[in-house]
Each structure stands twice: as structure tokens, then as C-alpha cells.
Design brief:
The protein has eight helices and twelve strands. The protein has 250 residues and is of the alpha/beta class. The protein has one domain: Rossmann fold, CATH 3.40.50.300. The strands form three sheets. Strands 6-7-8-3-9-10 form a six-stranded mixed beta sheet, sandwiched between helices. A four-stranded antiparallel beta sheet has the order 2-1-4-5, covered by helices on one side. The protein is globular. The termini are far apart.
């Protein structure tokens, strides 16, 4: 497999948050981690990216143990977009360019500058390039964070609620964009999204979490009324709309 999480355990003091979490992801996969608040989704993403150090377990990318790598090499392989991030007194362009830091040698190159410009254009941020990040909206800053992760040119991108500050149109725009980037560059994306139907519409695979474990994992076949009830504790219909499941709470 391209990317594997094997037996990750993590506890905050004596409280077990993740208990033997394992799953595998292929290149070209867009994967949504689903479940209610408090089941360990964000902790899992942080353990994968080594923002947190798991108690045990391994994260493998193309067979190499990510947690045995230097921070610089981890950043070359994993791009991480946190749900919340502190702003600083930098321009949008410079903030995005910082995503190239793992690739810097002696100095910033023309390639780094061109790549930052291309990603800004891709996300429609050209007009904000010289603005300070503290002057832009929350939704625009969310796009800047995604742009900064993309210029790292990672093999796997992790996103914690990437659409949380965006309106409906921009939510779907970003999800289409992430999907297109994944497919075009043969990488993988692992996302936490609370909007169940948004994730179903734009993802290939799903990891349903309950009480710190993987309750179910797979494609659209795991989006069933029984699994929704078990994970979210709600009754729901699951209807097929143009071949894609639609969850309708009862």
C-alpha cells in the first residue's frame, strides 16, 4: 500500500483516545475520516503528522516509517492543514511561500517563487497576494493554509475541516480542487469533514470512527443506515442519488 497507519495508540494522561487504529490508503484516494466530536479524529490526524507522538504504532509511506524521519523529510511527505492556525504579520504570498521551506537549500529559488504563484492562481488568490493575512477573511485564510500545504508538494495531504469557514459554493470548489490535485499528482488526501453528505459526494473511501477505534472502513458500501446509527447514534435513510449515497436523518 502507498500509505499505512498500523496500530496507532494515543492517550491524554490516563484517557485512551486512539486504540489500535489501522487503515491503508492508496495513491489517488480521497479519504474522509468520519464520526461525531470526541472520537479521536483530530488526534489521529495529529498523530499521523507527528504533531503528536503516538504511544505506539507506525505510519508508513511507501514502506518507510514516517516517524523515523527528520521533521524536514516529514514535511516533504506530509502536508497538514489544521482546523485553526494563528495568523502572523506576513503577506499572503510570503505565507504560502513558507510551505516551500522543507525544500529550501541555501536560498529561495525561482522555482519556489513560480510554484507559489501557480498555487495562488489555482486557488483564486492572486488578488490577495500582497495583502497581510490578518487583513483577509476567515474563508480566504483557509484557502491560504491549503495553498501553503500544496506548495510543499507532499505525497499525502491531511486536512482538518478544510471547508469549515467557507460558503456552500466555495466548499464544493475546494473539494473539487482537492480531488483534482490528488488525481492529477497521484497523491492521497485524508480529511476530517463534519458535513457527511459533502464528504460522501467528494471522497473515494471512508473511515468511520467510534470510541477511538475504526468502526468501519471502505467505499460507499460502508455508508449504511446501520453504520450511521452505530457511529452517530441517529436514525437515517440512505438513498442513492446518481449513484452516490445521500444520508437523510429521520
Amino acid at each position: 500500500m502507498f500509505f499505512e497507519v498500523n496500530g496507532i495508540n494515543f492517550a491524554y494522561r490516563s484517557k485512551r483516545v486512539l486504540d489500535g487504529v489501522s487503515f491503508a490508503v492508496k495513491a489517488d484516494d480521497v479519504v474522509s475520516v468520519l464520526g461525531p466530536n470526541g472520537v479521536g479524529k483530530t488526534t489521529l490526524i495529529k498523530c499521523i503528522s507527528k504533531v503528536l507522538t503516538p504511544d505506539n504504532g507506525a505510519v508508513l509511506i511507501e514502506g518507510a516509517d514516517l516517524h523515523q524521519m527528520s521533521k524536514k523529510n516529514i514535511a516533504k511527505n506530509i502536508g497538514y492543514v489544521a482546523q485553526k492556525s494563528e495568523t502572523s504579520r506576513t503577506t499572503v504570498f510570503d505565507s504560502v511561500l513558507l510551505g516551500r521551506k522543507p525544500h529550501f537549500e541555501w536560498d529561495i529559488t525561482e522555482k519556489d517563487i513560480r510554484l507559489a504563484g501557480r498555487v495562488l492562481h489555482l486557488l483564486g488568490l492572486d488578488g490577495l497576494a500582497l495583502k497581510y493575512v490578518e487583513e483577509i477573511s476567515g474563508g480566504e485564510y483557509q484557502l491560504v493554509q491549503i495553498a501553503r500545504a500544496l506548495v510543499q508538494q507532499p505525497k499525502v495531504i491531511l486536512l482538518d475541516e478544510p471547508t469549515s469557514s467557507l460558503d456552500l459554493s466555495n466548499q464544493h470548489m475546494i473539494m473539487h480542487l482537492i480531488r483534482n490535485i490528488v488525481k492529477k499528482n497521484h497523491i492521497a488526501a485524508i480529511m476530517i469533514i463534519h458535513d457527511l453528505n459533502l464528504s460522501i459526494r467528494h471522497s473515494d473511501k471512508f473511515i468511520l470512527m467510534k470510541d477511538g477505534v475504526v468502526y468501519a472502513a471502505g467505499g460507499h458500501e460502508v455508508i449504511t443506515p446501520d453504520n450511521i446509527k452505530a457511529v452517530y447514534n441517529i436514525d437515517a435513510y440512505v438513498e442513492s442519488v446518481r449513484g452516490i449515497p445521500l444520508v437523510i436523518p429521520i
